[in-house]
Write a structure and sequence with these properties.
heterodimer, A: 160 residues, mainly alpha, 9 helices, B: 116 residues, 0% strand
Chain lengths: 160, 116
């Protein structure tokens, strides 16, 4: 709680804030990081397996196999979200399930399933990007700025 | 060997995300958005491509590769068509991820019912 907000509170409220702060469960950083490392690493390991599969059995190479790999992982993640497994893992793994592309798929599919009761157009269609939209907005805008700078430097100013 | 590096690098990127959430108290949405922007910047500096060659899926599966792929698509189109390519090419490479996420999520919403 910021100092500015704290000044507005009565002494009793301040006392309560201190009291609550002491009893707030501490975030177990090391344990969380270990979980994130192993679960996130595991998902990437599965991804690498899928990549090898596409390279060996289909006409993909190391560069192009990334796309079908993420599509497959997204497919698996959506199914697991629908069946309710993903949230169980996510509760423990934190960023381990959030950062891989499966977390993005989980955010979209869980929003879609949750808002289904509001109808397909307003509920599913309108809310699908509710959680995942920020990733796309900031990704696209930063990519636009960076690519613009890079193109202007390399193409029109002849590079560094 | 690539399997080991995929595991380690992918795990480390997730640890960075966990630290952003636990130490800097960011919400999950802020964390993923920041990592996407970081991925885009790394590709702008030409650092992400070597990481993918080194770690394979360890670099392509985390959300940072989304930012990387956005910049990549924009740059590839810009090579061909000049400045306008930056706008037309942004989704060129990430199309697989976004379209499959939309398609499968919609199908899931038809099949599954919310448990809440």
């Amino acid at each position: 709680m910021s100092d500015k907000k704290k000044k507005k509170l009565t002494p009793i409220q301040q006392q309560y804030q201190d009291f609550a702060l002491k009893r707030e469960p501490k975030r177990q950083l090391l344990k969380n990081c270990l979980y994130a490392f192993f679960v996130g690493g595991g998902i990437c390991l599965v991804g690498q397996g899928i990549t090898q599969f596409y390279i060996h059995f289909f006409d993909f190479n190391e560069k192009t196999a990334g796309n079908p790999t993420s599509a497959t992982l997204i497919f698996l993640s959506v199914i697991m979200t629908g069946l309710g497994f993903y949230d169980h893992i996510a509760q423990k793994a934190g960023a381990g399930t959030l950062i891989p592309v499966t977390g993005f798929a989980n955010a979209m599919s869980s929003a879609a399933i949750e808002h289904r009761s509001e109808g397909y157009v307003l509920g599913v269609g309108g809310n699908m990007f509710k959680l995942a939209g920020s990733v796309i907005v900031f990704g696209v805008f930063s990519a636009f700025v960076i690519a613009l700078i890079k193109v202007i430097f390399t193409k029109y100013l002849g590079g560094f | 060997m690539i399997f080991l590096w995929a595991f380690v690098v992918g795990g480390l990127i997730c640890v960075i995300g966990q630290i952003l959430m636990d130490v800097f108290k960011l919400t999950p949405a802020h964390t993923t958005s920041s990592l996407v922007v970081v991925g885009a910047i790394l590709d702008g500096l030409g650092l992400y491509e070597p990481l993918i060659e080194f770690a394979g899926a360890g670099a392509t599966v985390p959300i940072t590769s989304f930012g990387n792929a956005l910049v990549h698509g924009a740059m590839a189109e810009a090579e061909k068509y000049g400045l306008i390519g930056v706008v037309t090419g942004i989704f060129e490479v990430t199309s697989a991820g976004i379209s499959s996420a939309i398609i499968f999520s919609f199908i899931a919403s038809l099949i599954f019912k919310s448990k809440g």
